[in-house]
C-alpha cells in the first residue's frame, strides 16, 4: 500500500492535510533551515487535539550539519522523550560523526528515548559518506524508514541511488523526499517505491499591510511579504496518481 507523507510547518496545515487524505505528517519548524524541532507550545497543542493521523515531529536542534555537541545531544534526547510522553506516533531524527558516519552512540541514546515510537532517519543520510553501509546499519538499528533524496539536492536526481537502496533494504522503508511532486511522482512509483514525502507548498501574500523595506528578519534573500501554505491541488493530484498506481 502506497503512502503519502506531507511535511507541515503549522498546526493549521496539519488540519488541512488531514482533510485531504494524507497518510502521515512530518511536523517541523524552521522551514528556511530545512526543518527544526517544533516548539513545546506547538507540540502540546497538537497532542491535545488528538487528530486521527500519524504525526511524526522532527527532532533537529539547529540548521547546518548533523554532528552535535553534548549540549545539543541532551536537547535531542529530552525532545524525543517529550514527543513520546505526548503520545505522538513517531519521531524523525539523525546524527553523524565528523567523518560522515553514523553517530552510533548518540543514535543509541535517541532510540532508547524513543522507546517504541516509529522512527524515521532524516536527510542526514544524504550527507553521509557510505550510503549502503549506513543503510545496513539503520536497518539493524530498527529504524522504520529512511527519508532521502538519494544524496542529491532533489530526489529525482538521486533516483538511481534511491532505487538501489530500496532493493538492498531488509525491513526499513526507503522514502524519497525533496522535490517530490505530482509531475515526477510516477517515476518514483514505477521504480518500486511505496512511500513518498512532499512539502506540497504554495505561497500566499502576508496579511501585513505595512512592511519596512529596510529590515529583514531572517535571510535577506527571503521574501518576507509572502507566507507558505499547503497546496491542496498538488496533494489531490499526488493522491490520484497513487490511487492509479502511477497511471
Automatic annotation (TrEMBL):
Molecular function as annotated in GO: copper ion binding
InterPro entries referenced in this protein's UniProt entry, alphabetically: CutC-like, CutC-like_dom_sf
GO cellular component terms, semicolon-separated: cytoplasm
Pfam families the record matches: CutC (PF03932)
SUPFAM superfamilies: CutC-like (SSF110395)
Keyword Cytoplasm among record annotations: yes
UniProt entry keywords in alphabetical sequence: Cytoplasm
Compartments where found: Cytoplasm
Coiled-coil stretches noted in the UniProt entry, renumbered to this chain: none
Similarity comment text for this entry: Belongs to the CutC family.
HAMAP family: CutC
Official protein name in the record: PF03932 family protein CutC
Organism (species): Orbus hercynius
Gene name as annotated: cutC
